[in-house]
Design goal:
Strand content: under 5%
CATH topology: ABC transporter involved in vitamin B12 uptake, BtuC
Structural class: mainly alpha
Number of domains: 1
Number of strands: 4
Low-confidence stretches: none
Number of helices: 15
Oligomer: single chain
Strand order of the largest sheet: 1-4
CATH architecture: Orthogonal Bundle
Distance between the termini: 10 Å
Shape: globular
Helix content: over 70%
CATH class: Mainly Alpha
Radius of gyration: 20 Å
Mean pLDDT: 85
Length: 331
Amino acid sequence: MQNALAGRDWKDILKYLFVHYNYIFSFVLLLIVGRFASDQFLSVASISNLIRSSVFIGIIALGMTLTIISGNIDLSVGSILALAAAVSVSVFNSTGGVLVALFAAAAAGSLLGLINGLFVGYARMASFIVTLATMTAYRSITVQMGQGGPLLTDNTLYFENLRWIGYGGIGGPQGLPYLAIIFVGLTVIMWFVMNKTKFGRYVYAVGSNEKAAKLTGIRVTGVKIAIFTITGLLTGVAAFLYASRFGSVDVATAGRMFELDVIAAVAIGGTMMSGGRGTIQGTFFGAVIIYSIDAILSAYQVPAFVNDFIKGVLILGAVLLQKVLDRTPDE
């Protein structure tokens, strides 16, 4: 960043910082607004709760960041979460094993993501169409598993073995939540993957110019399959945490409309919806911002049904801002 700012005047520096780190400006602004909404908004407990609330959307959004950077989209993540959570609950009830349930959810999510990736990669179908179809198909399978009703964890097993993950934390229930620690840990891992590995460079290359990526020897098909599989894997992990938090899965509604929040988090985090540019850390802040907005609206007693309208406006605003900023040089 120091090289990018060298020799620039203060206006250019401010512009560069806003273009590349707008999610930080947005987050700070929301903290200020939230402070006026509630005296407790900036407390450690409040911020911890914000991060904990954003965990499910945020972890899925980490995978969606890769998908969108590569120039694709995944509309099936909400249905994948529901199906993977249903599998996790079923396996947990049968075995009582937390790690087994986690593995089952991660494996189910990876398999469902792999199916998406095979259609997008090998069949060369548009990701929008593929994931729109699998969104419906996966939800149908989930509803069939639960016979239309909720899937409940065994009450005794849940309170003995599983609930501590969803509600526990360092320093007790009111301390630093385990869910937040897991979210931050996965963010660090995905940041490393995208910034320090060849695979991360391949993802950016495919999103920037797929034909050029092929000419340089990148196996574009394999990269796309890997991206959708990783997105499914992360969604599976989020599904396990979802089950640990709520102890049940409503097969008809679990994860429904998560797609909107996930895409909003990625867009607000600064990832270009046309592909080729984006950051994992931006998505982390984007997910927290989404739930900060919910908390602020609730503090101001704004009706809950207005939230999705505001999120839709935010997505449009983020994409429009990207278009406007791209018309002028920022380097």
